[in-house]
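stage 2 :: seqdesign
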């Protein structure tokens, strides 16, 4: 349904390093670098960060977040740990999140600009 997604960042170098480390456990790598944008993905750039130098920190009240699919709970755990090590802030530790319609395992992190990112998997049991 969605081909690619992009978000704004205030410091491209800092954010590119953050995402390079945070997304590595999910198998995404830095594929394209341009003066004001960096693209990450597996085979092609599915996720882009775009320099917005004057951008203010993203307010928690925006309600927006971006979710990446993980293959396992171990990948979700590794994503969370890598993102924290890279300078992110935990916004929901890895864990099972049962809901009425679907049961999933996820972790949430705020990137250096306050963008809310998530890794999710759907365990069989």
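stage 2 :: out
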């Amino acid at each position: 349904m969605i081909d690619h997604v992009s978000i704004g960042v205030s410091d491209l170098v800092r954010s590119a390093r953050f995402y390079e480390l945070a997304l590595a456990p999910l198998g995404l790598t830095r594929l394209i670098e341009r003066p004001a944008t960096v693209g990450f993905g597996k085979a092609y750039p599915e996720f882009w960060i775009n320099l917005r130098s004057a951008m203010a920190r993203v307010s928690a009240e925006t309600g927006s977040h971006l979710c990446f699919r993980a293959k396992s709970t171990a990948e979700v755990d590794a994503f969370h740990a890598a993102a924290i090590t890279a300078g992110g802030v935990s916004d929901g530790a890895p864990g099972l999140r049962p809901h009425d319609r679907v049961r999933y395992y996820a972790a949430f992190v705020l990137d250096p600009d306050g963008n809310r990112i998530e890794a999710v998997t759907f365990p069989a049991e």
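stage 3 :: structure notes
- The chain has a mean pLDDT of 94.
- The longest helix spans residues 73-85.
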